[in-house]
Structures are given as C-alpha cells and as structure tokens.
Amino acid sequence: MSDMNKGLYFDTAMLAGEIELCSGSEIYRVEDTMQRILSLTGNGQAEVYATTTGIIATLQMEGEEPLTGVKRIAVRSNNLNRIYQVNEVSRKLCDGRMTIEEAAAALRAIQNAKAYPKWVIQLCLILSVMGFTTLFGGNGYDFLLAGVAAGVMVLLDLLMEGRIYIDFMKDVVKTMGIAMVTMWICRLCHQAHSGVIIISALMPLVPGIPITNAIRDTLQGDYMSGVARMLESLVVAIGIAVGAGAGLGVYHLMEGWLLL
Amino acid sequence: MIIKCLGAFLATAALSVAFEAPKKYLLHAGVAGALSWGIYLVILGASKDVVMATFVATAVLTLISHIMARIWKAPVTMYLIPAVIPLVPGSGMYHVAYSLIYENKSAAANYGYETILLAGAIALGIFVVDMVFRNNMLQKNKKKSSDTSAAKLFRE
After folding, report:
1. Which of A69, A81, A220, B51: CA 20 to 30 A from A140?
2. Looking at the domain assignment, is residue B148 inside a domain?
C-alpha cells in the first residue's frame, strides 16, 4: 500500500472518531469504528485509545515508521444523526460498497450536516414539553400553559446563544426562568398545577444521555469515561435543582409585593 | 392511560428531533417511548412501587431498542436515548428543590433518596439487558476470531 493511501486511511479513521465523540457517542463505538477503518490497511498493527475528552491512535506497518495522531475533543454535543451517518459510512466502507476517497468526502460532509432547521427543533422542544404534562397527570390547562413555559425556555436559549458558554450556567438560568414564569402563570390561572408544568418543562434538560452513556461505557470496561459521564449527569442534575430552587425562591420572596 | 401513552409518544418523538435523530427513526423512538411508559404504568398499578416499575420499564425498553437496532441496523442509542428520558426522575429533582425552598428538610431528604434510587433503577435496567447482548456479541466474535486463527494455522 502506498504511503499517501495509508495516510488517507489514517485521517479518515481519525475524522470518523472525532465526529462520533463530538456527537456524544459511546467510547467503544468510537474505538470500534476507528479500529475497523484502520484494519482495512491490511497488514498494519493499529491501536486506538479514546476517552471522553480525546483520541490517541497509532498505525504501524511492517518495516515502516508508525503513524500516530492525537485529537483533543473540547466541545461535545448530542447529535444522534451524525453518529448514525458515521456508522453507515463505516459499514459501507468495510463492506467494500464505498471507496476510501468517497468515505473521506462523506465524513467531511457529515461534520457540518444539520438534520433539521433550527425552528423545527425549537418547535419540537415545545411539543415534547406539552407531551410530558400528560405523563405527570396534568389537565388541559397544563398542556397549553406548558407550551408557554417551554417557549420561555427556548427564548432564554436564544438570548444566551453566543453570550454564555458554560453549560451549567445555561441550565441554571433556563430552569430559573421556567420556574418563575410558571409560578406567575399559575397565579393567574388557578386550574393549572405549577408542579406539573415546571417538571414537564425541565424534562428536556434532564441528563438522560449522559446517564445512558455512562452505564454503557462502564459495562464495556471504559471506566474512565463511565465515571466522567456519571459526574456530568450529576452536575446537570444539580444545575437543574439549583435553578428550580432559585426560581422558586425568588418568586417566594417577591410574592408578598404582588407581581400583579 | 391511552392518553398518557400518546403523550409519551409525542414527547419521545419530539425529543428525538431535538437530539437530531434521523427522520426515519422518529416514529420508532416514539413507539419505544410509549411502550415503555405503558409498561411503567401497568407495573406501577400492580405493585405500587415506583422503583420496581422504573426498573422493569427500563429493562424492557432496552430490550426493545436492542431488537429494533438489529432489525433496522442502527446504533442502539438511536432508540434508547430519547425513549429513556420520560423515566428519568426529573420530578424528583424538582421536588427536592421545592421542599428545600419551602423549608421542609425531611421531605427534601425523602425525595433526594427516591431520586437516587430511581437513577439506580434506570442504570440497573439498562445494565442487565445490555450485559446479555454484549456477552452474546463477544461470544460470537471470539468464535469468529478463533476460526480465522485456526484457518491461519492450517494454511501455514
């Protein structure tokens, strides 16, 4: 295999791993995908090591200098679409239904792919909050008013975009806004339950992804990322509790002065 | 109960859009969420035990996600992550904060304890089912690799 081709395989594997890790994939999936792509080089010896914050990979061909790369992953988000797309590309590549050049181009396209426009995502956040009210025993008023509370959450999200970069702070501000607005709404509309609306509105913020991934990573023996993700979900949970508490507290203090 | 399952369907399908799941898997995730919530409600009605209900619902949900992943050849997390959200104890976190603000410390401790138990139940539910599938997969891989090494020996 020519030298340039080996480099292309290595870069493609690195890119695939990076996209998966940035999109919140489990560690074993990252390592597995990279290992599979690197093993296509034939007689090479490939080693991949990934944690939640970075990837190290090396490819040693017989009688050649080894290729090694390190990638630091600083920003992570949740994007199931990208994980799925990378999975498809690596599946096709390993089955021989795709050449390495095509795969590299496809991965570069995936890196900036958006499955939905922004307003659809925001609308669906509001819809999901309205759906959650039925789960927690809310009535028709709760169903509609939860939409307002979720709208406030989306609005706060838009306001904070490009201004606040710390996730903990975002969660606290969002839940605080939700709690205050909901308590105020429920003061005006007596048929609504403030508890149901607040809980439903903060359900999309709940750390479901870190918990799920923490368990799956721990089971695979990736204890480092398992513990890191446990801690992440704990921090998010604390952020939600602090925000809700702060919102309720502020409302409680101002209740006497009458907001309306 | 049917309304609640429909609510779970709406919530899960809409949430998977927020997590940017591919369009063709939205309905699947919604169905998984509605099914697991239905099971949760049935077990809760039968045993009156929230922790038990959460555990069984999560375990069944993980099983459904694994089966769906094998049928439609997609990562398990595609179905599991959106559908597990309704079971996550968000209400517990809120009740802890609420009780602390209205100075009811024993209630806060109670809710905190329950929240931790529920998180543990979810973890165990995913863990148990995942473990079985993972073991199966490792077994298969082992067989395959020993086959190829045997073939190599033969060739040499």
Report:
1. B51
2. no
Min Cα distance B153 → chain A (Å) is 17
Chain B residues touching A216 at Cβ < 8 A: 77, 126, 130
Same domain, A128 and A236: yes
- Note the ipTM here: 0.81
**pLDDT by residue (tens digit) across A140-198?**
888 888 888 899 999 998 998 888 888 889 999 999 999 988 888 888 888 888 888 98
Of A59, A83, A111, the domain-final residue: A111
Residue B110 lies in a domain: yes
Tell whether A138 and A248 lie within a shared domain.
yes
Do B86 and A203 form a contact (C-beta atoms < 8 A)? yes
DSSP string, A82-137: HHHHHHHHHHHHHHTSS-HHHHHHHHHHHHT--SS-HHHHHHHHHHHHHHHHHHTT
pLDDT tens readout for residues B30-53: 999 999 999 999 999 998 888 999
Closest CB from A114, A135, A244 relative to B94: A244
Confidence (pLDDT) at A3: 58
Give the residue from A21, A90, A135, A231 with the most B CB atoms within 10 Å of its CB, the best one to mutate: A135
Partners of B8 on chain A (C-beta within 8 Å) are 131, 134-135
Q: Check whether residue A54 and residue A122 sit in a common domain.
A: no
d(CA A92, CA A150): 40
Last residue of a domain, which of A59, A87, A111?
Answer: A111
Q: In terms of domains, do A145 and A244 share one?
A: yes
Instruction: Enumerate residues 6+ apart whose C-beta is below 8 A from B24.
Output: none
Name the domain count of chain A.
Answer: 2
